[in-house]
Structures are given as C-alpha cells and as structure tokens.
Amino acid sequence: MAEQEQFLRHAMESYGGAVYRLALCRMQNVEDAEDVYQDVFLRLLSEQRQDWKGEHMKAWLLRATLNRCADIYRFRLRRPVLALDEVPELAGPVDSGAAELWDAVARLPEKQRTVMHLHYAEGYQTEEIAVMLNVPPATVRTRLHRARLALKNLLGGIDDEKQVSEPDRAYSSARQPY
Amino acid sequence: MKNKYQNLTERIQVPASLTDQVLLAAARQNTHTTQNGVNSMKKKNGSILRMALCAAAALVLITGAAMFAMTRPETIPDGLDTLAGQSGPVKPAQPATSTAQVFSLTAYAAGLGTQYPAGEDGSLAMGSGSGMYWLERDGFFTGSLFRVTGENIQTVSLSLDRGGLYSYRILHDLTAEQQQEIREAQGRNELAPASIDQDDNGVWSFQEMIPFENTLTVNYDQDMWYGLWKSGITFEDDPQKENQINIDAFDGGLLSVIVTFTDGTEQTNTYHLHTGKLRTAAGPDGSLIPLPELAGENESYIYGVYAVLEQ
C-alpha cells in the first residue's frame, strides 16, 4: 500500500500537470478534466510495469489521457469553451493576451487543438505526436499547419507561428519544416 | 526559452484536492480488490454482462431497486441470466390474447423528463440532442427515450431490428461515497462515463445508461426509460452532420414491444421508425419539443426519430 501510494504520488508530481492540462485543453470542462485525471492515474496502477524509463511514463499517461477524453467525448450542438479565468488553481493573474490565446486555442477543432497542445505546451515533435495519436506524421503536420492558420485568423494579425512559439529553441530544431 | 502558450499552460496547476482524491480512490480500489480476491483493474470492457451486473450491484445501494435484466446472448454465461434479487430468469409469459389490458409508449426528453406528445394514431416523436452521449468506447446513446406505460404490466420485451437499446434512469441525491462508487465503476469500464452533476441546490445526480444488444426482456419498472443506441460512432467535424448520420442509422427500423400483464395475457405493438426533421411545438417551459411528423420547408425542426404504430 505504501509503495503504491509513493509510486502514485511520484507519478502525479512528475506528470500530473501535463495530464491535467491536456485533459483541460481537450475537454474544456474542469469537472471532466478532473474525472479524466483520476481515471488515468488509477489505470496507471493497473499497468503494473516495473520498467518505466525516462519519458515513457509521461507518453503513456498522455496517450491514456487522450483515450479517456475520447471515451467521454460529449456531443454538444455548441461546444462550450472554458474561459481561462474559470480555470481553478491558476498561478498569477490573467492578462488579456493570455486569455485571448487560451480562448483562441480552445476554439480550434479538437484534432487541431490536441496536436497544438502537445507540440507547444508539452514540446513533443511531429513524429512523437504521430506515434501518440497513431496517425502519420504528415497528418500531424497538416493539423498543426491548419491550427496555425486558424489561430492567425482568430487572433488577427499573426503572420506565422513565431507569435506563439518564438523564441523556443526546441521547436526550431524540429526535423520537419512546418 | 518557452513559448507563449507553454508559459500560459504551465500556470495551470493540478488542484491539491484532486491529488488526494486520486490517492483515496486508489486506496479504496486496493481494498476492494483485496477483499474480492480479484484484480478488478484488469477487467476489460468486453463483457457488458459484467458491466450491467456490477452496475446493478453497485447501484442497488443507491436506489434499492435495481430490477432490470438484459439479453446479450454472446456475453451471458450459463447460469448468469438472472438478476440480483430475482429468483429466476425473466421470461415472457406464454402468448395470450389480451382484450382488457393495453399499454402504450410515451416519449421523453432525456435528463429533463419532459414528456413529448404522441400523435392521435399512437405515433411518437423521439427527439435528439438532450441526453445524447457520444462515447468512443460505448457507442452512441441517442437520447431518444421512451417509457412503457400501462396498468398491471409484469414484463416488457423490446426488440429492434437494427442498432441497439439502452436503459436509462437518473439516480438522485448521491452521497460522496456513492459518487465515488460510480467513479470507480467507470474507472473499471463497468459504467458508461456520463458525468455526475450537481444542481443549484447542491444535489448530486447521475445518468445511468446501460447499453444492450437489440433485444431486452425486463421486469416492468415504471420509472425506467429505454432508448435507441448503436455501437460505433461516425465522427465528423460538423456536430450537426454527426448527429444526423448517426440518427439515420435507425431509419426504417422496426421496434417490437411485447408486454405481458399480471393476468398472463400479452400484447404486442410494432413501431416503424423513421428519421428526419421533425416538426416542433413550444413546450411548457418555452423550449421546443418534437412532434411525430416531418416539418415543412422553412419550419423550425428537431432532427430525430419518430415511431409510427403499425395498425
């Protein structure tokens, strides 16, 4: 029991933020994100693997998060968007630029929003996202491209990805051009 | 250096209470597993039987009246075709002709309990939208609900020649412990992951939905709704298009309802299902409710299923 709790605490301390943010981004609903978070970490316990290495656990958790989010995808004629100031436990005040960026990403179609989040928030490369989503890398690149185009329109005046990602060395070193 | 979006998202922190909640759930799950001598986390969602029986077992605590049965022949092992609390399998009575007993179907809006008016010929409009759930794992719950209504009904048998059916009810006044039971059942893939909702008065409720194949025989429960369900989901970028494509899977279907009464007599009604843009009327609360007829051009409509009683 103590070992299990320690394992779970460590996993949540290390990767809980990434799981919660992805769930929140995907579900746009705090209660749903919390449900996903709990389910994903409970499932982690059932994995009973002893060989978690490096980022493998994080990748597993994020994939489990996406699967769980898809499970509880709810049909809504108009999908509500979660405002940034409705997010609990937000460190620091919300400035209008951040709120606008959050809102713009939230309004992206789900598939674009997911790759956008994994790439820009979690720093995954195209190929890594492709493996995670089980789609070809070209599909991920297309979704990212469309997401950027959509954000350009939503935010008005962004003429390339740099407004979102610059100056982030990790992304400029990506193997595939965007 | 980080990008703007990363800077933004990293400000979002996991609520401290959520960490405690997960640890508590894990501890409870561990206790439950140990007590039962099985590793419940290894259960797969292949057995709807297990899902429904566990749901029944868990939720009998909540309502004290989990009296439903299901028919899913390929998943029901021998000897398990009875219900918790029942003395034997639910079987329709021997056919007999009923002259005094009658039943009918009444359509409702899921979650709201609003009753939809039937046509003079017994036809029903089963709208969609309210109470509709798309679950990648569990399929498409249409929110097109109906109840069997009548006097002295003993059992109800439903069959549909395409898609499937599900039972639906709302569990009210859930305690924290009951909510946790539901979450754990959902975590074990034993319950469809509908949300646990809290109303303005702080009362928690849960929409329990249990899918079946296309046949179902149950002891009569006047509070139970049934709905149209299909496995698999067609995903489109346009939600409205998604809705219509999935609803249209029921177009041309035949729904047979056989009711046995306490006196042993039996009545069968067959409904022909059609889908399309249903004409609407204003409901008591001002919302639009569907009528069992197609809308004219330029009229407001609700896309849904309507069922015409075979005369």
Question: How would you portray this structure in words?
Answer:
The complex is a heterodimer of chains A (178) and B (311). Chain A has 178 residues and is mainly alpha-helical. Chain A is built from nine helices and no strands. In chain A, helix 1 runs antiparallel to helix 2, helix 1 packs across helix 3 (56-71) and helix 4 (96-106) packs across helix 7. In chain B, helix 3 runs antiparallel to helix 4. Chain B is globular, with a radius of gyration of 21 Å. Chain B folds into two domains: 12-42; 45-78 and 102-179 and 189-309, no CATH class. Chain B is built from five helices and 15 strands. With 311 residues, chain B is of the alpha+beta class. In chain B, the strands form two sheets. In chain B, strands 1, 2, 4, 5, 7, 8, 9 and 11 form an eight-stranded antiparallel β-sheet that branches. In chain B, strands 3, 6, 10, 12, 13, 14 and 15 form a seven-stranded antiparallel β-sheet that branches. The interface between A and B is large, with 60 and 48 residues.
Topology:
The complex is a heterodimer of chains A (178) and B (311).
Chain A: H1 2-27, H2 30-47, H3 56-71, H4 96-106, H5 110-121, H6 126-133, H7 137-155, H8 162-165, H9 169-172
Helix pairs in contact in A: 1-2, 1-3, 2-3, 4-7, 5-7, 6-7
Chain B: H1 4-9, H2 16-36, H3 48-63, E1 103-109, E2 115-116, E3 124-126, E4 133-135, E5 139-150, E6 153-160, E7 164-171, H4 176-187, E8 196-198, E9 204-212, E10 215-219, E11 225-230, H5 239-247, E12 254-261, E13 266-282, E14 288-294, E15 301-309
Antiparallel strand pairs in B: 1-2, 1-5, 3-15, 4-5, 5-11, 6-10, 6-12, 7-9, 7-11, 8-9, 12-13, 13-14, 13-15
